[in-house]
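> forwarded from #structure-qc
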């Protein structure tokens, strides 16, 4: 009889362990999401490259983004990153560049005042998110992928875009002899709900 009692206790403990393990595992399979709103007031979207062998840097001074990232309280949301930026707001601090960027050959802000990014997938990898999506500039969409690193208070990413693929500066510099073909982009986003 004592062996049966010990077996029942062991069986009961094993059942409790399995129930807790199952609850813990299932609850962690479905992420909930935090929604972060970001804009140029507390965060930055900057770009850099070279012109005639000299480095230039700039940033968009008017943009907004929404990031739905794990974890949070809304399990019905899909992970996503969307952004919209005012192409006219690209500023380098150099009056020649700043007056040239809005022109038809470059950003053509008269016909394409907004640029957008829409994610197609956001995958959690450790303390980061692998983001893949579509960047649209001058009405031309191209795929972009980047790693969005989460350091607790900030999200950051660095990647490059091919300006020729977006028809940027192709009339005046189609072979990228004067201006970098690859333009480096940096994102620094303050996390706030």
């Amino acid at each position: 009889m004592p062996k049966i009692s010990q077996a029942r206790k062991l069986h009961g403990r094993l059942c409790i362990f399995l129930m807790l393990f199952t609850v813990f595992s299932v609850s962690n399979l479905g992420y909930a999401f935090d929604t972060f709103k970001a804009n140029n007031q507390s965060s930055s979207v900057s770009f850099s490259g070279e012109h005639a062998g000299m480095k230039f840097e700039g940033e968009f001074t008017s943009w907004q983004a929404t990031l739905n990232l794990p974890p949070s309280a809304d399990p019905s949301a899909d992970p996503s990153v969307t952004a919209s930026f005012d192409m006219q707001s690209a500023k380098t601090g150099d009056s020649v560049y700043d007056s040239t960027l809005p022109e038809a050959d470059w950003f053509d802000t008269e016909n394409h005042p907004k640029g957008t990014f829409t994610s197609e997938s956001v995958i959690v990898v450790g303390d980061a998110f692998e983001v893949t999506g579509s960047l649209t500039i001058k009405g031309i969409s191209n795929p972009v992928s980047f790693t969005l690193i989460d350091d607790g208070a900030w999200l950051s990413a660095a990647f490059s875009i091919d300006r020729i693929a977006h028809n940027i500066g192709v009339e005046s510099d189609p072979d990228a002899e004067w201006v970098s073909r690859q333009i480096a982009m940096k994102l620094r986003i303050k996390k706030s709900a």
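QC bot note: The two ends are 60 Å apart (CA to CA). Helices lie at 2-29, 95-100.
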